[in-house]
Fold:
Amino acid sequence: MQSVYVRLRTHARRIAAHLPAPVFYRRFSWAVRLSLEIMEKTPLVGEIQKWVADNIEDDFGHGLKHSIKVAEDAGALVLIESRFLDCPDQDIRRRVIIALCAGLLHDIKRKHKNHAVAGAVCAANILKRYPLTLAEIEDICLAIRNHEAFRSTEKAASSAGAMISDCLYDADKFRWGPDNFTDTVWSMVGYLDPPLEKFIQHYPRGMDSIVAIKHTFRSATGKEYGPAFIDLGIAIGRELLKVINSEFEQIS
Structure:
């Protein structure tokens, strides 16, 4: 990564460090902990995580770290959304496991055109070797196909499938908050290595996309708590723009 981007990343992380954590993590710490516990103690999830670690391209801002975080939050969202459902605990736990699998696999084809569709096709082939029903595999693949923003979505065959799809989407879009400026952007520029002039030229468009994502959350919990993630990301992005304008005024 160019030294200028290392400097900007340092600025962004300093800005982020002075902001509070998203309210979601304080309000639902129990769900995040339980989701992580299920991830760590479920052999199926562990096997899929290992497969992802061995196969995902980890240099474009959407690698293993991103996938694990999305999976954890998707599982937490399923737990939260399931609180008032009249179904056995083991069914809820199974839905969490399916959401964790979807989260781990959702960006397995991130560099491909139409990466959500390509990822779903890849996931369908991989998942045949694991102890999953055909319906569960379809729920995972549907969630992967539906996780891109600003695109039409496919309808799930069941309420469980719809919940998993919505929760995966929202967990992925949580990353458009602080994570975008502490990690994702810098991994992407480290891979693409754009000239600084081009980075600055596209910066406002990137900020507009973050603003637009604020109104796309799908689950009830995502709609209530997702915008706060985005507000934090916007705050970091605007402060970073001040740094860019002051330090690189001759370019911007």
Q: What stands out?
A: The radius of gyration is 18 Å. The domain at 3-247 is CATH 1.10.3210.10 (Hypothetical protein af1432). The mean pLDDT is 95. The first helix runs from residue 3 to 17.
